[in-house]
């Protein structure tokens, strides 16, 4: 009988404060672990990004033996990285003799499955984009990946017109993607059949990037050529 009464006694409830203290401790420990992992992996992520960027620069500027990093300033020009200026990066490529062979910069636009981030090469001699490399994309395999591998599509970036207007503040003709087989102008990108959205995103990325970077490059071109 005594055993039965003992079994029927209510179990003492855990004090609310004790529960909150335990949960708070777990949350604090979890937060510390996340912060620790972030701090440990941050240098690795940064180094991987640096290597990826460097490979892309030399991919779109095949004649370059070394690169110099610059930023687009609020004044519409260029400044060396680390000189107190802060802004979007552009990369000057120089050959072994120290001659400027081109400038690389990145553009982003939303495609079919998300943002497409691309590095483009600009040649001051022809005032054109003459190279591209997709840095990140979630486009449909077999279609969207043609942006980076289809030889016919890549011909668009052998001499894609990026001349400036008379004032030197914008492209004379915005870069646009047109329906496959209808390209008539040197500033047009011949799209890929079956990947229209991805092709148009590539055109928007190229136009936006060139509209930002080319005026600054041309403004400071003489100075840029001496930064070897």
From TrEMBL:
Lineage, opening ranks: Bacteria, Pseudomonadati, Pseudomonadota, Gammaproteobacteria, Chromatiales
InterPro entries: FMN-bd, Ion_transpt_RnfG/RsxG
Main subcellular location of this protein, as a coarse class: membrane
Record membrane topology: Single-pass membrane protein
Cofactor dependency: FMN
FMN-binding domain residues: 111-213
SMART domains in the cross-refs: FMN_bind (SM00900)
Lineage top rank: taxon: Bacteria
UniProt name for this protein: Ion-translocating oxidoreductase complex subunit G
Keywords associated with the record: Cell inner membrane, Cell membrane, Electron transport, Flavoprotein, FMN, Membrane, Phosphoprotein, Translocase, Transmembrane, Transmembrane helix, Transport
Top EC group: translocase
Spans traversing the lipid bilayer: 20-40
Function: Part of a membrane-bound complex that couples electron transfer with translocation of ions across the membrane.
Source organism per UniProt: Thiorhodococcus fuscus
HAMAP family given in the database record: RsxG_RnfG
Pfam families in alphabetical order: FMN_bind (PF04205)
Subcellular location(s) of the protein: Cell inner membrane
Subunit structure: The complex is composed of six subunits: RnfA, RnfB, RnfC, RnfD, RnfE and RnfG.
Family listed: Belongs to the RnfG family.
EC number: 7.-.-.-
Residue numbers bearing the FMN phosphoryl threonine modification: 196
Keyword Ribosomal protein: no
